[in-house]
């Protein structure tokens, strides 16, 4: 299995046919392959960038699907269809369009986003510290900030530690998070009539995924970490508002963008072909 993935990787330096069979399962000894794929996300070749992102997304989706299906009593045909549906969705989200004009537009959006974030960083005397785009970027970026703030020692400032912290906080404060978490059924499902809120069992499954998988983090996890570590977390982004402030108290407008003792990260929609990404923001000059 690993050999077939590496053969596919060698071909990724030239345009690939999207009909090739993608890798199916992420094995424990495939770390080198993943590192190369993540490195190729910085490629100037949009085809290489898109193909690497597609492979990574497929691998992560399949790995998570296999874990979730371990206790599933569905037959093999149903599991196969579920995996195919997930891979099709991942491919649609990560692959660059074939239209050259649309590709150029996306690349221009990425350039404009980079300029906008750089401008805000200059105003705040910050510089971007690149975080590995491996699905754990939110947690790694905030972990880097917690070291700068002296909240955590470097030995404990890992994405694994922060994933566990976020999962435990969300699970122990269900009423604060369930209304804002994606429902598994309910009002978001076709023909549903109930409220769409997670059940306690579904919340447990959500928190398990946050803690034990590479599922990407978002607003609920940022708020959970802000409250768990009792620090504001400011997110620099292109667009409006340019700085999103998350405070432990929940107040959206509390404090200033220039306050001390704040964790600062940047949010990128177009930086990598893989999709949304977070980086850490460090001071250009440390007093």
Task: Give a verbal description of the structure.
- Residues 1-11 have a biased composition (Basic residues).
- Pfam families: OTU (PF02338).
- This is Unplaced genomic scaffold K443scaffold_6, whole genome shotgun sequence.
- One of its GO terms (molecular function) is cysteine-type deubiquitinase activity.
- This protein has 287 residues and is an alpha+beta fold.
- The protein folds into 2 domains: 2-96, no CATH class; 104-283, Cathepsin B, Chain A (Alpha-Beta Complex), CATH 3.90.70.80.
- Helix content is 48%, strand content 11%.
- The protein is built from 10 helices and 5 strands.
- It has a 5-stranded mixed β-sheet, with helices on both faces.
- A hairpin with a 2-residue loop joins strand 4 and strand 5 (275-283).
- The protein is globular, with a radius of gyration of 20 Å.
- The model is unreliable at 1-29, 68-74 and 186-194 (pLDDT under 50).
Would you summarize the structure shown here?
The protein has helices at 2-10, 31-40, 46-68, 76-94, 100-123, 137-148, 159-172, 174-177, 200-212, 219-229, and strands at 126-129, 233-236, 243-246, 263-272, 275-283. By secondary structure, it is of the alpha+beta class.
* Series of secondary-structure elements, N-terminal to C-terminal: HHHHHEHHHHHEEEE
Overall radius of gyration: 20 Å
Number of domain modules: 2
| Beta strands, count | 5
Mean pLDDT: 74
**Distance between the terminal alpha carbons, to the nearest Å?**
52 Å
- The stretches of 5 or more residues where confidence is low (pLDDT under 50) are 1-29, 68-74, 186-194
Query: What does the largest sheet look like?
Result: 5 strands, mixed
Shape: globular
Fraction of residues in H or I helices: 40-55%
CATH topology of the largest domain, by name, is Cathepsin B, Chain A
Structural class determined from secondary elements:
alpha+beta
Number of helices: 10
Oligomer: single chain
The level-1 CATH class of the largest domain: Alpha Beta
CATH architectural type of the largest domain: Alpha-Beta Complex
In the sheet with the most strands, the strands line up as 1-5-4-2-3
Estimate the strand proportion: 5-15%
GO biological process, one term: protein deubiquitination
Pfam families: OTU
GO molecular function: cysteine-type deubiquitinase activity
Protein name: Unplaced genomic scaffold K443scaffold_6, whole genome shotgun sequence
């Amino acid at each position: 299995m690993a050999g077939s993935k590496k053969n596919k990787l060698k071909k990724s330096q030239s345009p690939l046919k999207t009909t090739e069979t993608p890798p199916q399962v992420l094995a424990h000894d495939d770390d080198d392959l993943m590192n190369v794929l993540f490195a190729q996300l910085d490629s100037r070749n949009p085809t290489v960038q898109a193909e690497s992102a597609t492979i990574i997304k497929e691998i992560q989706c399949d790995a998570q699907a296999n874990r979730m299906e371990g206790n599933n009593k569905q037959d093999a045909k149903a599991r196969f269809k579920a995996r195919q549906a997930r891979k099709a969705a991942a491919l649609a989200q990560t692959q660059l369009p074939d239209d050259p004009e649309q590709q150029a537009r996306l690349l221009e959006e990425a350039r404009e986003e980079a300029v906008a974030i750089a401008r805000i960083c200059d105003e705040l005397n910050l510089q971007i510290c690149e975080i590995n785009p491996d699905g754990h970027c939110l947690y790694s970026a905030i972990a880097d900030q917690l070291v700068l703030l002296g909240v955590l020692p470097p030995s404990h400032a890992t994405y694994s530690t922060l994933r566990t912290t976020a999962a435990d906080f969300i699970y122990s404060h269900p009423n604060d998070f369930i209304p804002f978490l994606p429902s598994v059924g309910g009002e978001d499902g076709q023909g549903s009539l109930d409220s769409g809120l997670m059940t306690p069992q579904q919340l447990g499954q959500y928190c398990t995924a946050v803690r034990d998988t590479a599922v990407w983090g978002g607003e609920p996890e940022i708020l959970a970490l802000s409250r768990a570590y009792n620090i504001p977390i400011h997110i620099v982004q292109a667009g409006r508002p340019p700085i999103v402030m998350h405070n432990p108290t929940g107040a959206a407008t509390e404090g200033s963008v220039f306050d001390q003792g704040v964790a600062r990260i940047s949010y990128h929609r177009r930086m990598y072909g893989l999709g949304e990404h977070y980086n850490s923001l460090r001071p250009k000059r440390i007093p």
